[in-house]
Specification:
This is Protein Atg16l2. WD repeats lie at residues 336-377, 380-421, 422-463, 560-589. Keywords: Coiled coil, Cytoplasm, Protein transport, Repeat, Transport, WD repeat. By secondary structure, the chain is α+β, with helices and mostly antiparallel strands. It has 2 domains: 23-63 and 95-233, no CATH class; 332-622, Methylamine Dehydrogenase, Chain H (7 Propeller). It has 5 helices and 30 strands. It has helices at 14-36, 39-66, 73-83, 90-234, 272-306, and strands at residues 238-241, 253-256, 332-337, 343-348, 354-359, 364-370, 373-380, 387-392, 398-403, 407-412, 420-423, 429-434, 440-445, 449-454, 459-465, 470-475, 479-484, 488-493, 499-504, 509-514, 520-525, 529-534, 539-544, 558-560, 566-570, 576-580, 586-590, 598-603, 610-614, 618-622. The strands form 8 sheets. It has a 4-stranded antiparallel β-sheet, with no helix packed on it. A hairpin with a 5-residue loop joins strand 24 and strand 25. Helix 4 runs antiparallel to helix 5. The longest helix is centred in the N-terminal third of the chain and has 145 residues, at 90-234. It starts with 13 loop residues before the first helix and ends with a strand.
């Protein structure tokens, strides 16, 4: 029996599938016929024997009826002697026939039983054959599908390999360009630093030359004035007085001063009562006024020198008071449930006696710090969403808040309603800070942008697109620093369009704090660490960790002390942690009223008080 042949893959023409069906039917016919090849001859042989026996038995029946014992007795006896050896008697034949009939019946029964068994086996084999043929057809169809899929996947693999090769070539080209660009950037940065140093040196030399020139001019002027005074002292001065009219007429008096040989006279001389006061008063007043003019000129020159690179000088706030030595808090002095919901932000005013808190209840409360207590001052209303950040301007006259309604809002201290709304972000605003120049602010948002604002016109003067969420921003003289969700701190020049530096940190950045001298930056991140970055070398100087400290949220705020000696942050367990910036040692951990995660902390500019706010609506004043 031939085995099943592997079907060929069907082609597109219509005759192929017809020939395939014919081949399958022929193969099926051969397979089924092979099962009956042994059974059919045996069955035919049985049928032939049964038919022969039936004919033989029928013939015997007829012969037994026709031949009687009396009629043929004589002839049987006569011929018995001759054919006795050939033909037996009917009785013997009947007995023999019956025996053969019984044997044939037994054989027929066995054959019929075998036929039944073979039929059952045939049915079983037929069902198995049909099942296997069905499985074979399904497998053949599956094979066809798998071959098609394999062909398609091979084609896709070839395309992917070609794409990967093209992308690899493009990547190698981009990497080479990046290496070249980094080398060019480093070279340009070095050239820029060299040019800046050269510019500073030239400006310093120009200032020194200008100062020397001014000093020479001042000395020349003073010498000229002295010569004029000497000449004036040598001349005769006449003073005429016209007194009031009297009843007896007009009296005229003339006083004549004699010339002196020397410009300076002792006070004991008689003429000194007239000449010396005149000389000393004139010379002193003239010299002082001239000196004042010179000093003003030098100050104006220094101002112009300070803004010679950036253009016209920008109006700036007065300097914020500096703290000489901050005091580490030790105990809680006042505890208040200040808001209806969690408190997200806190900030001290520049005078250290005014405090602002903002929460999820869309309110900003102003507090006065009086005698170690917090006294309610004012409530600022009108925010469109939860408050995420609050900030005082350096003059303490305005409050800027970031909200969840995709905007920042500006209040004037003393007015309850919002003065301006800075709208333009497409997602919630997470940070809003004043710049050191007047009428300017910066905001950061979860829409991956940082915006600069002109507060005088409530106008967005610049939009910076970033690749990640912005969680906090701080501002220096000419720099903006932003912390992002992609574990990076980015530096932006407010006078240039591009990012000037990126510092990676471990963990999402939650807050930034810039020291008063703008030389150090404190960052808090979700890896439960605080990092101090030295901006002079753009390097991480200290990393603060502590057992039990855990950053509670993406908006947890950490701050420097006013003198930059300490770093302060609140933990998710309600404790406050204070590190020494210089030594990196954990100075103190404060436990007390907070039963929920601390969201933000603030250290007043005088260095005497600390305020912390938490997710349980509490505001705590520490001393």
């Amino acid at each position: 029996m031939e085995g099943p042949s592997v079907p060929s893959v069907p082609r597109a023409s219509g005759a192929q599938w017809k020939r395939h069906i014919v081949r399958q039917l022929r193969q099926r016919d051969r397979t089924q016929k092979a099962l009956f090849m042994e059974l059919v001859p045996a069955y035919n042989h049985l049928l032939e024997k049964a038919e022969l026996l039936a004919k033989f038995s029928e013939k015997l029946k007829w012969e037994s009826k026709d031949v009687t014992p009396t009629a043929h007795q004589g002839s049987w006896e006569e011929s018995s002697g001759t054919v006795s050896d050939q033909i037996l008697s009917p009785v013997t034949l009947r007995v023999k026939w019956q025996e053969e009939e019984k044997g044939l019946q037994l054989v027929c029964g066995e054959m019929a039983y075998q036929v039944v068994e073979k039929g059952a086996a045939l049915d079983t084999l037929q069902s198995q054959l049909e099942e296997r043929q069905g499985r074979l057809g399904a497998l053949e169809a599956c094979v066809v599908q798998l071959r098609e899929a394999r062909t398609q996947q091979a084609r896709q693999l070839k395309e992917r390999l070609e794409q990967n090769a093209a992308l690899r070539e493009a990547y190698e080209g981009l990497r080479a360009n990046a290496v070249h660009g980094e080398a060019t950037l480093r070279r340009l940065q070095e050239e820029a630093r060299d040019l800046l140093d050269l510019l500073v040196q030239r400006k310093a030399r120009a200032a020194a030359e200008r100062n020397l020139c001014n000093e020479r001019r001042e000395r020349a002027n003073q010498a000229l004035v002295s010569q004029e005074l000497k000449k004036a002292a040598k001349r005769t001065v006449s003073i005429s007085e016209i007194p009031n009219t009297l009843d007896d007429g007009i009296r005229e008096e003339t006083v004549t001063l004699a010339p002196a040989a020397e410009p300076e006279f002792p006070e004991s001389e008689a003429c000194g009562t007239w000449k010396r006061p005149f000389r000393s008063a004139s010379a002193t007043s003239l010299t002082l006024s001239r000196c004042v003019d010179v000093v003003k000129g030098l100050l104006d020159f220094k101002k112009r020198r300070g803004h010679s690179v950036g253009g016209a000088p920008e109006p700036r706030y007065q300097s914020i008071p500096m703290c000489v030595a901050a005091q580490i808090p030790t105990q809680a002095q006042d505890v208040l449930e200040a808001h209806l919901s969690e408190v997200n932000a806190v900030c001290f005013g520049p005078n250290s006696s005014l405090l602002a808190t903002g929460g999820a209840d869309r309110l900003i409360h102003l507090w006065n710090v009086v005698g170690g207590r917090l006294e309610a001052n004012q409530t600022l209303e009108g925010a469109g969403g939860s408050i995420t950040s609050v900030d005082f301007d350096p003059s303490g006259a305005q409050v800027l808040a970031a909200t969840y309604n995709q905007a920042a809002q500006l209040w004037k201290v003393g007015e309850t309603q919002s003065k301006e709304t800075l709208s333009g972000h497409k997602d919630k605003v997470t940070a809003a800070k004043f710049k050191l120049t007047r009428h300017q602010a910066v905001t950061g948002s979860r829409d991956r942008t940082v915006k600069e604002w002109d507060l005088g016109r409530a106008y967005c003067s610049r939009t910076i697109n970033v690749l990640s969420y912005c969680n906090d921003v701080v501002c220096g003289d000419h720099i903006i620093i932003s912390g992002h969700n992609d574990q990076k701190i980015r530096f932006w020049d407010s006078r240039g369009p591009h990012c000037i530096q990126v510092i990676p940190v471990q963990g999402r950045v939650t807050s930034l704090s810039l020291s008063h001298d703008q030389m150090h930056l404190l960052s808090c991140s979700r890896d439960n660490t605080l990092k101090v970055i030295d901006l002079r070398v753009s390097n991480i100087r200290q990393v603060f960790r502590a057992d039990g400290f855990k950053c509670g949220s993406d908006w947890t705020k950490a701050v420097f002390s006013p003198d930059r000696s300490y770093a302060l942050v609140g933990s998710s367990n309600g404790a406050l942690y204070i590190w020494d910036v210089d030594t990196g040692k954990l100075e103190s951990s404060l436990w007390g009223p907070h039963c929920a995660a601390v969201n933000a902390v603030a250290w007043c500019f005088s260095g005497s008080h600390v305020v912390s706010v938490d997710q349980g609506r509490k505001v705590v004043l520490w001393h």
